[in-house]
Amino acid sequence: MPARSLDTSLSCSAKPRLAAFSGLKTLAVIGIIACHMGALPGWDLCARMVEMLFLVSGFCMAYNHFCPSDTPTARPSGWQIVKAKLPRLYPVHFATFLLQLFFVPAWSSQTIGFILSFGLLNLTLQHAWFQSTQFMFNNVSWFLSALLFCYFVTPALSRAAARAKAARRLFLFFALLVAIRLYIEYMRSSYPSYIRLDLHANPLVQALNYSLGFIAGVFFLSPSPLNAVLRQRLSFAAATLLETLFAGLYLAACYSLGSTAYRLFFVLLALPVIYVLAFGRGALSRIISAKPLLWLETVNLEIFMFHSFILYHFPVNADNPWYYAEFAAITLAAAISFHWLTRRFRRRAHRPRRTAPPRILSRT
Questions:
Q1: Can you give 292-312 as a three-state secondary structure string?
Q2: Using an 8 Å Cβ cutoff, are 31 and 188 in contact?
Q3: 345-to-87, 120, 348, 349 alpha-carbon distances in Å
Q4: What distance in Å separates the CA atoms of residue 92 and residue 185, rounded to the nearest whole number?
């Protein structure tokens, strides 16, 4: 029996907008902030939400990368993708680095040599590669370091997925990534004194999570029998049932297992949730596609990057009934203000310069 072609030929206009993912990313950032405030300690919420962000990022990149209008020769290289992302990512990283450096005693009290050495590592976004420096200065900026590495390897992922011209080959590629991810986690848990690797912040580990999300996105676009049936016959009731079932299983596992199970288990359990939400036909996907969550997603990066600094100077105060509202207001104000300023600056930087019309001298 011939292998089924994996042609991702669904037209760009026919692809549904992944609005649910914008809301999902917003909820993931809220979950990370809640984790940093000490909420739900048994859930290992920070790890789960970070994994979700990388899986969704990989899925969305595949979704955009395999649009038929982008021919293989026109697809950008890894450096081009990173270069295109930096104007959005780097200003907030640089700003929060300066805030941590000058207004957090743990860093401002360091020697000039320390600041120059480790500050350069942080400013070049290479600090996530070293376990002792991953959480220096802004302790969430490692995320950008890992994410840029994921963007850099995207063309290699794209070529590998394009060469897997059959669904079974794509599954084998997916299984290979799972095996590598499992081997790393097994070695880390079995021989921690030899394998000093942070499974939370290491760019290689998160790139594997991103890659699994990418392959899931490629499969979502493929004309497989399962996708064909779901696109044609998935009703609101059936979609709601699937979304509730998979999301319920995922949350139940987070609650009951917490940090006791392999992290890969939660990654694999999150993929069906992402897959069914991508169709956007159930009640859950519509709820997390609500306009307030979509609007918050536009300043998601700034909220994520600023919250650590604000939390340091405005720590949790359970005795204050208004604390969480005040924290949210301060964080939102900082995020919206910085987003507006940087967006305005980028627009002015890309605005074409007006040239004076040629001066015409009249003959007398």
A1: HHHHHHCCHHHHHHHHHHHHH
A2: no
A3: 10, 25, 5, 6
A4: 32
pLDDT at res. 359: 60
- Local confidence band at 357 (pLDDT 50, 70, 90 cut-offs): low
% of the chain residues with pLDDT over 90: 65
Distance CA 254, CA 260 (A): 10
Binned at pLDDT 50, 70 and 90, residue 230 comes out as confident
Tokens of 346: 């980028």
Q: What 3-state class would DSSP assign to 202? A: coil
Cα distance between the two ends of the chain: 88
**Among the listed residues 66, 62, 59, the one whose alpha carbon sits nearest the alpha carbon of residue 22:** 59
Query: Which residue is associated with the tokens 């009731």?
Result: 237
State which H helix or E strand residue 16 sits in.
none
DSSP-H helix ranges across the chain: 19-36, 45-65, 78-103, 105-108, 112-123, 142-163, 167-190, 203-221, 225-233, 236-257, 263-279, 283-287, 291-297, 300-313, 323-350
Each residue's pLDDT tens digit, 1-15: 344 444 544 445 455
Sign of CA dihedral 321, 327, 332, 333: positive
Residue 364 has pLDDT above 90, yes or no: no
Q: Tokens 């015409």 map to which residue?
A: 360
Q: What is the rounded distance in angstroms from the CA atom of residue 228 to the CA atom of residue 146?
A: 35
Extract the tokens encoding 176: 């290979």
Partners of 5 in beta bridges: 166
User: Which amino acid is present at 244?
Assistant: T
Which residues contact residue 288 at a Cβ distance below 8 angstroms, ignoring those fewer than 6 apart? Answer: 20, 23, 24, 26, 27, 277
Amino acid at 237: A
Residue 82: phi and psi, rounded to 5, are -60, -45
- Locate 137 and state its tokens: 């200065």
Nearest to 223 by CA among 165, 150, 144, 290: 165
